[in-house]
Amino acid sequence: MKKKMVLAVAIVAVIVCMTIAFTACNTDNNDDILFGSELLRLTAQVDILQNLDTGTADIGIMDSVMAGHYLTHGSYVGKIAALNLFTFPAEEYGIGAKKGNDALIGKINEALIVLAGNGTFASIATEYGLQNEVLVDLDTVNPNASATDNSWNAIAQSGSLVIGYTVFEPIAYPENGELTGFDVELAEAVVAYLNDAYGSNVEIEWIEIDWSTKQTQLENGTLDLVWNGMTLTDEVKNGMSTTVPYLANRQTLIIRSEDAEKYADMRSFFINAKDAVVAVENGSAADLLMTIE
Hints:
Order of helices and strands: HEHEHEEHHHEEEHEHEHEEHEH
Number of helices: 11
CATH class of the largest domain: Alpha Beta
Number of domains: 2
Number of strands: 12
CATH topology of the largest domain: D-Maltodextrin-Binding Protein, domain 2
Low-confidence stretches: 1-30
Distance between the termini: 39 Å
């Protein structure tokens, strides 16, 4: 009877973990992270793949937009696999400016809605396999349409829009010596529309940043926008002026393909993940997901 009770308790514990998707189940009793022996915070999401490949990390958590691309393109095909034991909540990407720069955000919203209406947005999304993730259409409401602060005027007068990014394929990445990607092409289309609509001559300056410093760089004026597949968490929305959601995403677990048997089912995951080094991008939605405060 005692053995049956112990087994029943164990089964219930696993079911609870499955139901709440890690929310309270920290397999190694570490008070700081949800599971694993160590949380490895990296500068960019692409570093997660590199650390998995070299064995420095055992499990990675990254945006599904990026994971889906690397699982089917490039040198990691066959080496890295998605671990689909858990379905994380849907997320929304947005673009951020310094808190209070609502007029600039209003102009970006306006351009996104117009580009959604004339087919440009969908065309760019299709090029990068993201056509099913687009969240903007002609019925999208621009909550900043009437903003009167000087943020857009200052950009128009200076002729420069400084955008912060990290290497994040297919969102923003170097190719043949040039920066390209979904967000890069979309930003260029947005600025082209605004220049035409308002008689400005704004050019984009892209600056690669440490993701964890993005808000600080907005506040000190180093950046005008963070435009890089940024998840609209409460922290982001409270600390920045943000656009309407423009692209859908969710967090995804990835592992080395050779480790698939270690995490083949829920029981194997909770046994083996307790010793895993888990890699995330510092300051990202995955970092917030893994951290218990």
